[in-house]
Design brief:
It is built from nine helices and seven strands. Helix 1 crosses helix 7. It is an alpha/beta fold. It is globular. 43% of the residues lie in helices and 11% in strands. Helix 8 links the parallel strand 6 and strand 7. The strands form three sheets. The protein has a three-stranded parallel β-sheet, with helices on both faces. It has a two-stranded antiparallel sheet with strand order 1-2.
Length: 256
Amino acid sequence: MSHTVDQIQVDVTEAARWLADRVVRTPVLRSPVIDELAGARVLLKAENLQHGGSYKMRGALRAVGRLAAAGHHGVIAQSTGNHAVAVALAARQHGLAATVVLPVDAATTKVDRARAAGARVVFAGTDVEERVAMATGLSADSGHPVIDAYDHPDVIAGQGTASLELIEEAERAGTPLDTLVVPVGGGGGVAGACLAAAGTGIDVYGVEPVGCDSLARSLAAGERVPVAPAPTIADGLRPSCVGELRSPSSATSCAG
């Protein structure tokens, strides 16, 4: 990757400005029951209310928007579902063709949503290596660029805007954050969170399903460590390896 961490950190703020009228500034919620169970004030960023049903819309819109402005006519993406749906929706908004590569065991609802957004759906195996190989081949044949689900600078910057909004909302309410807790699959979301929180004193913790802990193992080893993902209901959090751009050497702003 030619982008540095410092460059992407700047891009998070730029992405937030660009996305301001294009995504939902989702509400920040609290639950007294959760506060009591946690023994702390817990703020929840309701990104399930985002366009496309997840924060993935942020990174997809930013990446697709920039590619459309550069004159591209189509895009390709691979994911377990949410990123594919987001790229399909973003491509439709910009009038681009979209091809998405999904695992053969992808959730039917996500397959249907990608198709409903106008994407061509291609299935490839059950692991990320098979999907990446398929996406790479499709890109070579069509000339359309691949928008990686978590290893793409515009995607990381876009995903970081969710954490940036949460930080801003907490500050505005007079209850600044001590910690950000972010789910981890390939690492794009937590990478964006780390960049959004850089210089604020806020700790960032990534949470992975048991047996799908590529980021934890990679941080411990100092290099990327692939895993054979264990079964989990969190189907969006089971890539076999954390992204290259979100590598251990650039993870210094994450607490754990």
